[in-house]
Write a structure and sequence with these properties.
By secondary structure, the protein is α/β, with parallel strands linked by helices. It has 2 domains: about 1-205, Rossmann fold (3-Layer(aba) Sandwich); about 215-290, no CATH class. It has 11 helices and 13 strands. It has helices at about 40-50, 70-75, 90-100, 110-115, 130-145, 160-175, 190, 215-220, 225-235, 270-280, 285, and strands at about 1-15, 15-25, 30-35, 55-60, 75-80, 150-155, 180-185, 200-205, 205-210, 220-225, 240-245, 250-255, 265-270. It has a 6-stranded mixed β-sheet with strand order 5-6-7-3-8-9, with helices on both faces. The protein has a 4-stranded antiparallel β-sheet with strand order 11-12-10-13. It has a 3-stranded antiparallel β-sheet with strand order 2-1-4, covered by helices on one side. The structure holds adenosine-5'-triphosphate. This is ABC transporter ATP-binding protein.
Protein backbone atom coordinates (compact mmCIF):
# COMPACT_ATOMS: atom_id res chain seq x y z
CA UNK A 1 0.00 0.00 0.00
CA UNK A 2 1.16 3.52 -0.80
CA UNK A 3 1.80 5.74 2.22
CA UNK A 4 3.33 8.71 0.41
CA UNK A 5 2.54 9.80 -3.13
CA UNK A 6 4.11 12.70 -5.00
CA UNK A 7 2.81 13.87 -8.35
CA UNK A 8 4.73 16.46 -10.36
CA UNK A 9 6.11 18.16 -7.25
CA UNK A 10 8.28 21.24 -7.76
CA UNK A 11 9.75 23.49 -5.06
CA UNK A 12 11.39 26.81 -5.89
CA UNK A 13 13.17 29.16 -3.53
CA UNK A 14 13.49 32.36 -5.58
CA UNK A 15 15.76 31.50 -8.50
CA UNK A 16 16.71 28.08 -7.03
CA UNK A 17 14.68 25.06 -8.03
CA UNK A 18 15.29 22.66 -5.15
CA UNK A 19 12.91 19.95 -6.43
CA UNK A 20 11.72 19.65 -10.02
CA UNK A 21 8.69 17.69 -11.22
CA UNK A 22 9.18 14.81 -8.77
CA UNK A 23 6.74 11.90 -8.90
CA UNK A 24 7.19 8.79 -6.78
CA UNK A 25 5.51 6.65 -4.14
CA UNK A 26 6.73 5.32 -0.79
CA UNK A 27 5.24 2.08 0.46
CA UNK A 28 3.80 0.79 3.72
CA UNK A 29 6.13 -1.43 5.75
CA UNK A 30 9.32 -0.73 3.82
CA UNK A 31 12.64 0.93 4.53
CA UNK A 32 13.40 3.52 1.86
CA UNK A 33 16.72 5.20 1.11
CA UNK A 34 16.52 8.83 0.01
CA UNK A 35 19.93 9.33 -1.57
CA UNK A 36 21.68 12.10 -3.46
CA UNK A 37 24.60 14.51 -3.44
CA UNK A 38 24.86 17.62 -1.27
CA UNK A 39 22.21 20.14 -2.24
CA UNK A 40 20.32 17.58 -4.36
CA UNK A 41 16.96 18.32 -2.71
CA UNK A 42 16.59 15.49 -0.16
CA UNK A 43 15.85 17.69 2.87
CA UNK A 44 13.49 19.86 0.84
CA UNK A 45 11.52 16.75 -0.16
CA UNK A 46 11.43 15.50 3.43
CA UNK A 47 10.29 18.88 4.73
CA UNK A 48 7.42 18.88 2.25
CA UNK A 49 6.44 15.29 3.14
CA UNK A 50 6.28 16.25 6.79
CA UNK A 51 4.23 19.41 6.33
CA UNK A 52 7.08 21.79 7.22
CA UNK A 53 7.06 23.32 3.76
CA UNK A 54 4.70 23.25 0.78
CA UNK A 55 5.33 22.65 -2.92
CA UNK A 56 5.37 25.45 -5.47
CA UNK A 57 3.55 23.08 -7.84
CA UNK A 58 2.30 19.50 -7.83
CA UNK A 59 0.53 17.33 -5.29
CA UNK A 60 1.71 15.52 -2.15
CA UNK A 61 -0.39 12.92 -0.38
CA UNK A 62 0.62 11.32 2.92
CA UNK A 63 -1.81 8.69 4.20
CA UNK A 64 -4.09 9.95 1.41
CA UNK A 65 -4.13 13.59 2.56
CA UNK A 66 -2.24 16.84 2.08
CA UNK A 67 0.20 16.88 5.02
CA UNK A 68 0.51 20.67 5.25
CA UNK A 69 -1.02 21.92 8.55
CA UNK A 70 -2.87 18.60 8.81
CA UNK A 71 -2.85 17.32 12.41
CA UNK A 72 -4.45 13.97 11.42
CA UNK A 73 -1.52 13.19 9.17
CA UNK A 74 1.23 14.74 11.26
CA UNK A 75 0.48 12.74 14.40
CA UNK A 76 1.41 9.65 12.39
CA UNK A 77 4.69 11.16 11.21
CA UNK A 78 8.03 11.46 13.00
CA UNK A 79 10.74 13.55 11.31
CA UNK A 80 14.22 13.41 12.83
CA UNK A 81 16.85 15.69 11.38
CA UNK A 82 20.51 16.35 12.05
CA UNK A 83 20.07 20.05 12.75
CA UNK A 84 17.30 19.62 15.35
CA UNK A 85 17.35 22.51 17.84
CA UNK A 86 16.14 22.16 21.42
CA UNK A 87 15.34 24.98 23.83
CA UNK A 88 18.49 25.97 25.79
CA UNK A 89 17.09 24.83 29.13
CA UNK A 90 16.05 21.42 27.73
CA UNK A 91 17.82 18.32 28.98
CA UNK A 92 17.66 15.11 26.96
CA UNK A 93 14.99 13.75 29.33
CA UNK A 94 12.77 16.76 28.54
CA UNK A 95 13.05 16.09 24.82
CA UNK A 96 12.11 12.44 25.39
CA UNK A 97 9.22 13.43 27.64
CA UNK A 98 7.91 15.88 25.01
CA UNK A 99 8.14 13.11 22.40
CA UNK A 100 6.21 10.72 24.66
CA UNK A 101 3.33 13.22 24.72
CA UNK A 102 3.31 13.75 20.96
CA UNK A 103 3.60 10.20 19.61
CA UNK A 104 0.69 7.84 20.37
CA UNK A 105 2.82 4.67 19.91
CA UNK A 106 5.67 5.87 22.19
CA UNK A 107 7.37 2.93 23.96
CA UNK A 108 8.93 4.24 27.20
CA UNK A 109 10.70 0.94 28.00
CA UNK A 110 12.28 0.80 24.56
CA UNK A 111 13.34 4.45 24.93
CA UNK A 112 14.99 3.65 28.29
CA UNK A 113 16.90 0.71 26.75
CA UNK A 114 18.11 2.89 23.91
CA UNK A 115 19.23 5.62 26.32
CA UNK A 116 21.41 3.01 28.06
CA UNK A 117 22.79 1.61 24.84
CA UNK A 118 23.62 5.02 23.36
CA UNK A 119 25.03 6.16 26.75
CA UNK A 120 22.88 9.25 26.61
CA UNK A 121 23.20 11.50 29.69
CA UNK A 122 19.61 12.44 30.51
CA UNK A 123 20.30 15.35 32.84
CA UNK A 124 22.75 17.36 30.76
CA UNK A 125 21.42 20.48 29.05
CA UNK A 126 21.00 20.09 25.30
CA UNK A 127 23.45 22.89 24.56
CA UNK A 128 26.14 21.03 26.55
CA UNK A 129 25.61 17.70 24.79
CA UNK A 130 28.22 16.62 22.24
CA UNK A 131 27.24 16.42 18.59
CA UNK A 132 26.99 12.64 18.82
CA UNK A 133 24.90 12.81 22.00
CA UNK A 134 22.52 15.25 20.29
CA UNK A 135 22.26 12.86 17.36
CA UNK A 136 21.49 10.08 19.85
CA UNK A 137 18.56 12.10 21.28
CA UNK A 138 17.05 12.21 17.77
CA UNK A 139 17.71 8.55 17.09
CA UNK A 140 16.14 7.45 20.38
CA UNK A 141 13.05 9.58 19.69
CA UNK A 142 12.77 8.36 16.09
CA UNK A 143 12.92 4.71 17.13
CA UNK A 144 10.83 4.80 20.33
CA UNK A 145 8.09 6.93 18.68
CA UNK A 146 7.22 3.99 16.38
CA UNK A 147 5.44 6.44 14.09
CA UNK A 148 3.75 4.80 11.08
CA UNK A 149 5.89 7.08 8.87
CA UNK A 150 9.35 7.79 10.27
CA UNK A 151 11.89 9.93 8.41
CA UNK A 152 15.55 10.21 9.43
CA UNK A 153 17.32 13.07 7.65
CA UNK A 154 20.94 12.13 8.41
CA UNK A 155 20.42 12.46 12.16
CA UNK A 156 23.11 9.88 12.83
CA UNK A 157 25.95 11.84 11.21
CA UNK A 158 27.33 12.83 14.60
CA UNK A 159 27.32 9.24 15.84
CA UNK A 160 30.54 7.23 16.04
CA UNK A 161 30.84 3.97 14.08
CA UNK A 162 29.77 1.82 17.04
CA UNK A 163 26.70 3.96 17.73
CA UNK A 164 25.75 4.03 14.04
CA UNK A 165 25.90 0.23 13.89
CA UNK A 166 23.79 0.11 17.04
CA UNK A 167 21.25 2.39 15.33
CA UNK A 168 21.10 0.16 12.22
CA UNK A 169 20.77 -3.01 14.35
CA UNK A 170 18.08 -1.60 16.60
CA UNK A 171 16.18 -0.11 13.66
CA UNK A 172 16.15 -3.43 11.82
CA UNK A 173 15.17 -5.50 14.88
CA UNK A 174 12.40 -3.12 15.93
CA UNK A 175 11.15 -2.74 12.36
CA UNK A 176 10.84 -6.54 12.11
CA UNK A 177 8.63 -6.58 15.20
CA UNK A 178 6.76 -3.36 14.39
CA UNK A 179 6.73 -2.90 10.62
CA UNK A 180 6.30 0.71 9.55
CA UNK A 181 7.36 3.01 6.75
CA UNK A 182 10.88 4.33 7.18
CA UNK A 183 12.78 6.86 5.09
CA UNK A 184 16.53 7.23 5.62
CA UNK A 185 18.45 10.05 4.01
CA UNK A 186 22.17 9.37 4.08
CA UNK A 187 25.48 9.70 2.27
CA UNK A 188 26.76 6.51 3.91
CA UNK A 189 25.18 4.27 1.30
CA UNK A 190 27.41 1.24 1.91
CA UNK A 191 26.49 1.27 5.59
CA UNK A 192 22.74 1.19 4.97
CA UNK A 193 22.65 -0.87 1.78
CA UNK A 194 21.57 -4.04 3.62
CA UNK A 195 18.72 -2.17 5.29
CA UNK A 196 17.25 -0.38 2.32
CA UNK A 197 14.48 -2.09 0.38
CA UNK A 198 13.52 0.77 -1.93
CA UNK A 199 15.78 3.46 -3.34
CA UNK A 200 14.93 6.99 -4.42
CA UNK A 201 17.86 9.01 -5.77
CA UNK A 202 17.54 12.72 -6.39
CA UNK A 203 20.05 14.83 -8.27
CA UNK A 204 19.78 18.57 -8.85
CA UNK A 205 16.12 18.38 -7.83
CA UNK A 206 15.20 15.57 -10.24
CA UNK A 207 14.39 11.97 -9.33
CA UNK A 208 16.95 9.90 -11.24
CA UNK A 209 16.39 6.46 -9.66
CA UNK A 210 13.25 5.03 -8.11
CA UNK A 211 13.11 1.27 -7.74
CA UNK A 212 13.46 -1.61 -5.33
CA UNK A 213 17.05 -2.20 -4.19
CA UNK A 214 16.79 -5.75 -5.50
CA UNK A 215 15.83 -4.62 -9.02
CA UNK A 216 18.56 -2.02 -9.07
CA UNK A 217 21.26 -4.44 -7.94
CA UNK A 218 20.22 -7.07 -10.47
CA UNK A 219 20.49 -4.56 -13.31
CA UNK A 220 24.16 -3.76 -13.10
CA UNK A 221 27.45 -5.71 -13.09
CA UNK A 222 31.13 -4.95 -13.51
CA UNK A 223 32.90 -6.91 -16.20
CA UNK A 224 36.68 -7.01 -16.33
CA UNK A 225 39.24 -8.67 -18.52
CA UNK A 226 41.38 -8.09 -21.60
CA UNK A 227 40.36 -4.94 -23.42
CA UNK A 228 39.08 -6.54 -26.61
CA UNK A 229 36.96 -9.21 -24.88
CA UNK A 230 35.39 -6.64 -22.56
CA UNK A 231 34.61 -4.23 -25.42
CA UNK A 232 32.96 -7.04 -27.38
CA UNK A 233 30.90 -8.05 -24.38
CA UNK A 234 29.91 -4.45 -23.59
CA UNK A 235 28.81 -3.62 -27.13
CA UNK A 236 25.14 -2.65 -27.15
CA UNK A 237 24.91 -2.17 -23.37
CA UNK A 238 24.88 1.04 -21.36
CA UNK A 239 28.32 1.62 -19.87
CA UNK A 240 28.02 3.45 -16.55
CA UNK A 241 31.75 3.55 -15.93
CA UNK A 242 34.97 2.46 -17.62
CA UNK A 243 38.53 2.14 -16.32
CA UNK A 244 41.57 0.93 -18.20
CA UNK A 245 44.99 -0.12 -16.94
CA UNK A 246 47.33 -1.32 -19.66
CA UNK A 247 45.37 -3.75 -21.81
CA UNK A 248 43.03 -4.58 -18.95
CA UNK A 249 39.54 -2.99 -18.88
CA UNK A 250 36.83 -2.90 -16.25
CA UNK A 251 33.35 -1.61 -17.12
CA UNK A 252 30.16 -1.16 -15.12
CA UNK A 253 27.26 -2.21 -17.33
CA UNK A 254 23.49 -1.94 -17.06
CA UNK A 255 20.93 -4.37 -18.39
CA UNK A 256 22.86 -7.66 -18.31
CA UNK A 257 21.09 -9.63 -15.55
CA UNK A 258 22.32 -13.06 -16.70
CA UNK A 259 25.99 -12.21 -17.22
CA UNK A 260 28.35 -14.99 -16.08
CA UNK A 261 32.12 -15.38 -15.88
CA UNK A 262 33.74 -16.69 -19.04
CA UNK A 263 37.26 -18.00 -19.66
CA UNK A 264 38.70 -14.49 -19.86
CA UNK A 265 35.98 -12.24 -18.39
CA UNK A 266 35.22 -11.76 -14.73
CA UNK A 267 31.66 -10.66 -13.84
CA UNK A 268 30.94 -9.17 -10.39
CA UNK A 269 27.91 -7.61 -8.75
CA UNK A 270 27.81 -3.85 -8.26
CA UNK A 271 27.26 -2.37 -4.83
CA UNK A 272 24.33 -0.02 -4.33
CA UNK A 273 26.81 2.77 -3.56
CA UNK A 274 28.68 2.23 -6.84
CA UNK A 275 25.42 2.11 -8.77
CA UNK A 276 24.16 5.35 -7.22
CA UNK A 277 27.49 7.13 -7.67
CA UNK A 278 27.97 6.02 -11.28
CA UNK A 279 24.38 6.79 -12.24
CA UNK A 280 24.60 10.24 -10.67
CA UNK A 281 27.74 10.86 -12.72
CA UNK A 282 26.06 9.87 -15.97
CA UNK A 283 24.88 12.47 -18.42
CA UNK A 284 21.15 13.17 -18.06
CA UNK A 285 20.31 11.56 -21.41
CA UNK A 286 21.62 8.13 -20.43
CA UNK A 287 19.93 7.91 -17.10
CA UNK A 288 16.62 6.66 -18.43
CA UNK A 289 18.43 3.43 -19.31
CA UNK A 290 19.24 2.67 -15.67
CA UNK A 291 15.63 2.01 -14.71
CA UNK A 292 15.79 5.55 -13.42
CA UNK A 293 12.41 6.82 -14.19
CA UNK A 294 11.11 10.12 -12.98
CA UNK A 295 8.04 8.16 -12.09
CA UNK A 296 6.72 5.11 -10.36
CA UNK A 297 8.41 1.81 -9.70
CA UNK A 298 7.96 -0.61 -12.59
CA UNK A 299 5.26 -3.21 -12.18
CA UNK A 300 3.25 -1.40 -9.51
N1 LIG B 1 15.01 27.72 2.60
C1 LIG B 1 15.74 27.75 1.48
N2 LIG B 1 15.94 28.92 0.80
C2 LIG B 1 16.65 28.93 -0.34
N3 LIG B 1 17.23 27.85 -0.90
C3 LIG B 1 17.07 26.67 -0.28
C4 LIG B 1 16.33 26.57 0.93
N4 LIG B 1 16.34 25.26 1.31
C5 LIG B 1 17.07 24.60 0.39
N5 LIG B 1 17.50 25.44 -0.57
C6 LIG B 1 18.31 25.08 -1.76
O1 LIG B 1 17.68 23.98 -2.37
C7 LIG B 1 18.63 23.03 -2.83
C8 LIG B 1 18.36 21.68 -2.18
O2 LIG B 1 18.70 21.77 -0.79
P1 LIG B 1 18.44 20.56 0.22
O3 LIG B 1 18.75 21.05 1.59
O4 LIG B 1 17.09 20.00 -0.03
O5 LIG B 1 19.54 19.50 -0.28
P2 LIG B 1 20.03 18.12 0.39
O6 LIG B 1 19.93 17.09 -0.70
O7 LIG B 1 19.29 17.84 1.65
O8 LIG B 1 21.57 18.43 0.67
P3 LIG B 1 22.61 17.89 1.81
O9 LIG B 1 22.86 16.46 1.50
O10 LIG B 1 23.80 18.74 1.57
O11 LIG B 1 21.96 18.12 3.15
C9 LIG B 1 20.01 23.63 -2.50
O12 LIG B 1 20.48 24.30 -3.66
C10 LIG B 1 19.71 24.60 -1.40
O13 LIG B 1 20.63 25.67 -1.42
Amino acid sequence: MTVVSLQGVTKRYGATTAVQDASFDLYEGRIHGMLGRNGAGKSTLMRMLTGQDFPTAGQIRVFGQNPYENADVLRQVCFIKESQKYPDIFQARHALHAASLVFPNWDADFAAELVEEFRLPLKTRAKKLSRGQLSAVGVVIGLAARAPLTLFDEPYLGLDAVARQLFYDRLLADYAEHPRTIVLSTHLIDEVSDLIEHVVVIDRGRIIMNDSAENLRSQAVTVSGPSRAVEEFAAGHTVLHREEIGGFVRVTLVGVPDARDTDNLRVEPVSLQQLVVRTTQLADGDRALVGAKNGREAGR
